Amino acid sequence: MAHLLGGENITVSFATRTILDEVSLGVDEGDRIGVVGRNGDGKSTLMRLLAQRSEPDEGRITRRRDVTVGFLDQTDVLDGTLDVGTAIVGSAADHEWASNPRIREVMGGLVSDVDWHATVSDLSGGQRRRVALAKLLIADDDVLMLDEPTNHLDIEGVAWLAKHLQQRWRSSGGGLLVVTHDRWFLDEVCTRTWEVHDGVVEPFDGGYAAYVLARAERDRAAAVTENKRTQLVKKELAWLRRGAPARTSKPKFRIDAANALISDVPPPRDTLALNSMATTRLGKDVLDLEHISLDFDGRAGGAVANTEGSARTELFHNVTLRLAPGERLGIVGVNGAGKTTLLRLLNGEVQPTSGRLKRGKTVKTAVLSQEVRELDDVDHLRVIEVIEREKRVVNVGNKEVTASQLVEQLGFTNQRQWTKVSELSGGERRRLQLLRLLVGEPNVLMLDEPTNDLDTDTLAAVEDVLDGWPGTLIVVSHDRYLLERVTDHQMALLGDGKLRGLPGGVDQYLQLRGEAGSGAGASGPGGAGSPTASTAQTTGGAGGSGTGIAGRDKGAGGGAETAASAADQRTARKDVARIERQLGRLSDQNRKLHGQMAEVSQHEPLDLKRLAR
């Protein structure tokens, strides 16, 4: 495989800390590399160096002369004054870019629901991210470098991007370097993994799953070596205690031997261990939404707005959801379908237009919001002070642990504990707020996009505590790895006002969305309609006593539907969807041909050969 680009003896330091220490590596044709590591260890720095967006303190970046690199930064670099079309394709005429199948695929996959003439500054964060991705992907670069490309993308967008990158080049062509916390995405796309830590970059073969296995084996071998080293050190120290060091030269030799044994021991890497908190006892009743309907303007003081531009006025229609003690529910859905609003309904922050929320007497809820604005009021405090405000001593595993010890277990070193909240990174703020919530000992925990700003190691630790957390858990996330790991079943909001059970999990959701998007005259968020469905029922979590029931949607001709089997109905829906897709493609081709004929006919003299084509 031909070499595309790389770095030789790269060293980068910030203040007194060395981020990369004489690192040498390279990207060859056919490489699909995922970059993982803790927040702040240099993943984005490494990518910016290789993209030649910044310079190393020492060493050099090499690149083959004809290689072009496309780079997606975490920050928004779009010109907010441009309209969407100009931001993506520049001044190119429609017929110029529309004739390219790759560009059409990118447009359809990322921005089909975005107003082509809207101003970039008026778009939501997710729409701006998709526009930036579309602008990058329509180019024909040899190497793509993507820094957190899945940020602000929903499950559908992540799945589309993974498929596009899998098919973008032949297996031995192109190069991809991606920094992301989305472990499913890493497994789908990457064939190699670079772990950035402690100033070095360690390569592993395979995606995230293979990397975890290889790292576990590496750590096991290191543990064996460390155990042997420790035993030797103990023997040396014991001998030194028994002897009289000043009497002969032999003790000095022993001291030198002991120092040699520990001289190359690296400083311990920060450990992140989250412990499950004791929870208040839950009664039989937890939270029930009974026949809930909610208008877009609702009773939330205008907090719920109609972002679809459609005639529909209801965000939810006749939705019933019953949560059982210990139930673990994942919520997925299209942007604007009401996932966050559903959490606010369950928490009592939003009042429904009709229906009611039934709340158990012993229920104590806690919500981790997307923006973590709850920390704004304590920005002037230090990390340790925030936790001590809640509790100075916490009972963890029948053992009393001080707030300082708990914060350290969460990854805040002794020095970092005294950092002001206003100076924390996004990931640190999210960790602090999660710890703050758990210290409050809730028995119903709601997490709204909890993976934002967290690295893979932190995510694994969060999943570990959620695995053993005994309360009721509701998770809204586009991270399917997290959903499949910590929840027992999932439900979907498809933009039709209903909550639908997903016995087939996230794969079933993507299938439903694919069928909906292919229908002609589709409506709803994202420009994709939602297929009609009958009752969606899912069994609850612990004890199997809880049931989530989506609002019923009986289509026209209810008697005929009951006579047909469920399998026949699914087959019929698939056939209809396939025919509608075919009709849609034929309609597009017809429209394109008429446009080309009109264009040719406007030129003098008439080009009959081109018209015949």
Account of the protein in words:
Residues 267-279, 298-305, 307-311 and 520-564 have low confidence and may be disordered. This protein starts with a strand and ends with a helix. With 613 residues, the protein is of the alpha/beta class. The protein has 19 helices and 22 strands. It has a six-stranded mixed beta sheet, sandwiched between helices. Helix 4 runs antiparallel to helix 5, helix 8 (208-242) packs antiparallel against helix 9 and helix 11 (383-390) runs parallel beside helix 13. The chain is globular and about 100 Å long. 38% of the residues lie in helices and 21% in strands.
Number of helical segments with 4 or more residues: 19
Largest sheet: 6 strands, mixed
Quaternary arrangement of the chains shown? single chain
- Uncertain ranges: 267-279, 298-305, 307-311, 520-564
The gross shape turns out to be: globular
Q: Please give the order of strands in the largest beta sheet.
A: 5-6-7-3-8-9
Percent of residues in helices comes to 25-40%
Average pLDDT value?
78
Tell me the strand percentage band: 15-25%
Distance between the ends? 40 Å
Q: What radius of gyration results from the CA coordinates?
A: 28 Å
| Strand segment tally | 22
The helix/strand class is: alpha/beta
Short structural description:
By secondary structure, the chain is an alpha/beta fold.
